[in-house]
Amino acid sequence: MIGARTPAYPVSVSASRLRRVAVLVLEGAKPLDVGIPAQVFTTRASMPYEVRLCGAAPGLVTGGDGLSYHVAHGLDALAWADIVFIPGYRFPDRDDPPQAVVDALIAAHDRGARLAAISTGAFALAATGLLDGRRATTHWHYSRALVAKHPLVEVDENVLFVDEGSVLTSAGAASGIDLCLHILRGDLGVAASNHAARRLVAAPYRSGGQAQYVPRSVPEPLGERFAQTREWALHRLDEPLTLEVLAQQAAVSPRTFSRRFVAETGYTPMQWVMRARIDMARELLERSQRSVERIAADVGLGTGANLRLHFHRILGTTPSEYRRTFAQGE
């Protein structure tokens, strides 16, 4: 017996039950960041949402990347919304948004609206104080700036998004899709989220965090005391590199080398070596067809299992998934 087919996504919802979404467009707003929530939550039979673009005031808002936006609503939209998205914008580390914007975000939160920042929109959200003592993320390029400007925020630069309940943040622009799909899963269920993902030609779930998109996981050194030693080590990653070996190359004691190395890089010597090995593995995965086992040996990690373990710990994904995402075409 064949029963009635269950819809793969929600059917039409009456206007009285529409969830209200405001997209707050600030000066310098990035076009992709603005467009993602506006498109994901667009009103249609399968999406019971109403979207309003707003700004500090109705009218023209100068955006980033040569675009401007004409928004029909001012901050009154934040008093109307159930969810407020804050797209990323240019130069977020310079100035805070206007006080009226900060106050309106706080008021929206106080009455129960969720606030969701995309990329550098986290800076505007952090200006409200609502991220203090909470985990948050932003584009990896700005993570240190967010820490410096808002030291009470627990910045996690290795994730695609963070859900703290009433406040949510996402990494670089495309991570806004991951955040929106996550919100959809919570609001309407997995079927609706998967339907939206197919419509966007996006992955319902992405493997790993944004760490895999950072050009290199080895940090920029703050000093050059051991620059030659680091360069020497980078050409010998397939060899045994212990603290004693590195200290001998630097002509100092292991204790002195370890203390000064941490001061320069923020990592212990062995942490730095591991990240350098993972970076080399990333490059080999991108540019060669070598097996994971062969790459593990080439970067000094011995076995494929060892490479997979450390690769996932540092980048939040597997070597195979990374290769599928970043391997260069023939």
Automatic annotation (TrEMBL):
What is an example of a GO molecular function annotated in this UniProt entry? sequence-specific DNA binding
Q: Which domain of life is it from?
A: Bacteria
UniProt keywords (A-Z) are: Transcription, Transcription regulation
Cross-referenced Pfam families:
DJ-1_PfpI, HTH_18
Tell me the SMART domains matching this sequence.
HTH_ARAC
Q: Does the keyword Transcription regulation apply?
A: yes
Please report the stretch or stretches of sequence annotated as the HTH araC/xylS-type domain: 227-325
Keyword hit for Cytoplasm: no
Kindly give the PANTHER family that the UniProt entry links to this protein: ARAC-FAMILY TRANSCRIPTIONAL REGULATOR, HTH-TYPE TRANSCRIPTIONAL REGULATOR RV1931C
The name of this protein is AraC family transcriptional regulator
This chain's source organism reads Streptomyces olivochromogenes
